[in-house]
Amino acid sequence: MNAHAQQGRYGVFGGRYVPETLIAALEQLEVAWEEASSDSSFQSELADLLEHYVARPTPMTSAPRLTNIVGGAQLWLKREDLAHTGAHKINNTIGQELLAKRMGKKRIIAET
Length: 112
Description:
By secondary structure, the chain is mainly alpha-helical. It has helices at 3-7, 23-37, 40-54, 64-69, 89-102, and strands at residues 60-62, 76-78.
């Protein structure tokens, strides 16, 4: 658990605001993530999926007319709309799926 969570985001009440029935699952998830985040094969598979399935990294596009409208600050747009699903949400979902697979889970409810 990271230092911020150990100290308790909500003071003496702890670091999680979730129903008690979810605590065991969240602790299991935390352990799995700690292991996966330091596993080079997990990171490599995630990077490969993001590159070849999601089409990341998405490009940066200069916005010269918008730059002129706002007074000269150079503006660039990060084109997440060009990702496979047309939104940024797939980035998180792919990571959740890969971690769930690693944990042997058969179903996912993912809120991105």
